[in-house]
Amino acid sequence: MSATASEPAGRFRIRWSARLRLTLLYGTLFFVSGATLLAVTYLLVLQSPASKGTKITTMNASRNPAVQEISAQISYVADRQREEAQRTLLTRSGIALGVMTGVSGGLGWLVAGRVLRPVRVMTERARRISAHNLHERLAMPGPADDELKNLGDTFDGLLARLDAAFDAQRRFVANASHELRTPLTLQRTVIEVALSKPDPDVKALRAVCERALAVGEDQERLIEALLTLASSQSGVFRTEPLDLAEIVTDVLDNLAPTRPEDVALDVGLTAAAAEGNAGLVERLVTNLVANAQRYTPHGGWIRVTTGLQDGAPTVRVVNSGPVVPREAIPSLYQPFQRLGHRSARADGHGLGLSIVAAIASAHRARIVTEQGPEGGLDITVAFPRSRAGLYGAAVP
């Protein structure tokens, strides 16, 4: 053991490791059990008839003083021998107990080291794992019902989730950088082309400004979507009672000017009391309906309903359209994932459903996504039953 820098020279600090504590525990248990066994044995010896002395009745019956004196001497010698035997038993048993306590401590040290060896292996491997090699695993050997192997497997599961989260974050940053760089490049190109003309007229400059303004609006929508995604993933927001039917009504009114005239809208709204952040839930419904409008072809239909399913308030959006492969549905909830073949109007950034998933997760809502009856998607978001203080941390 080496002294720490903050301690005076010559003083040592005992490192109370798990191995040392287990060793002391083993030794203490052995000493206590051994001492108890020794005490019980000693008491049993004291209570035995042989340890209480014997009476020489034949000699005591004689009235001869010489015989009585000899009898007394014999009794005295027997008592001394008995007491000496008891002291010897106690002393040697105590020595044996001390020796075996030391032996048990040594064996306890070895056994504790053996038992804790997997923990040391896990510690050494975990220290080598960083953000650059999260793909590595502890891969502890042993039977399936071993507690230390279960601990290692649990840690491996945590590493797998962290690895997936890091990969998703890296992909998100790369995709976000690309999506943000593309309109900037387009905007710069439009302006440079206009400036490269020797004598541009007012009409050409106006067209360039309108084009740059449209690109800027597209950037604003992208940045707003990114901010909404980040805020919904934080899980900290103000909650309040709300009715999904009222929110859907407002959303449909706001999106009415953008809905194609040749797309039929079927609305069936029933009161569905829930609790959450009204702004985020409205964004969730807006993205669901806007996604349906974007990917519904000409002559198609959209159905929006609210109500209670098994006591849970739900909002459901179904639309017709091209068939979406079942295996591709989970990827639609990843940021910047688009299936461009679904519709000619698929001009979004691929953040709509990822924002829906983030808001639903923040509200502990469950999303069920199926293939639509006539192509498209059938998306149901089921919120938990309304209960005060259910979601996140309330913001004052």
Task: Provide structural commentary.
The chain has helices at residues 18-47, 57-60, 65-128, 147-196, 202-234, 244-255, 278-295, 352-362, and strands at residues 240-243, 264-269, 273-276, 301-309, 312-319, 366-371, 377-382. The longest helix has 64 residues, at 65-128. The protein has 396 residues and is of the alpha+beta class. The two termini are 53 Å apart. Strand 4 (301-309) and strand 5 form a beta hairpin. Mean pLDDT is 79; it is low at 1-7, 55-59 and 388-396. The chain is built from eight helices and seven strands. It is 56% helix and 11% strand. Strands 2-4-5-7-6 form a five-stranded mixed beta sheet, covered by helices on one side. The protein has a two-stranded antiparallel sheet with strand order 1-3.
Tell me the number of helical segments per DSSP (H or I, 4 or more residues long): 8
Q: Quick check: average pLDDT? A: 79
Kindly, what is the distance between the CA atoms of the first and last residues, rounded to a whole number of angstroms? Answer: 53 Å
Instruction: Name the strands of the widest sheet in spatial order.
Output: 2-4-5-7-6
Spans with pLDDT under 50 lasting ≥5 residues? 1-7, 55-59, 388-396
What's the Cα radius of gyration?
A: 42 Å
How many DSSP E strands?
7
Q: H/E element string?
A: HHHHHEHEEHEEHEE
Label the overall shape. Answer: elongated
Q: Tell me what portion of residues adopts beta-strand conformation.
A: 5-15%
Catalytic activity: ATP + protein L-histidine = ADP + protein N-phospho-L-histidine
Pfam families: HAMP, HATPase_c, HisKA
InterPro entries: HAMP_dom (IPR003660), HATPase_C_sf (IPR036890), HATPase_dom (IPR003594), His_kinase_dom (IPR005467), HisK_dim/P_dom (IPR003661), HisK_dim/P_sf (IPR036097), TCS_sensor_his_kinase (IPR050428)
Domain Histidine kinase: 175-387
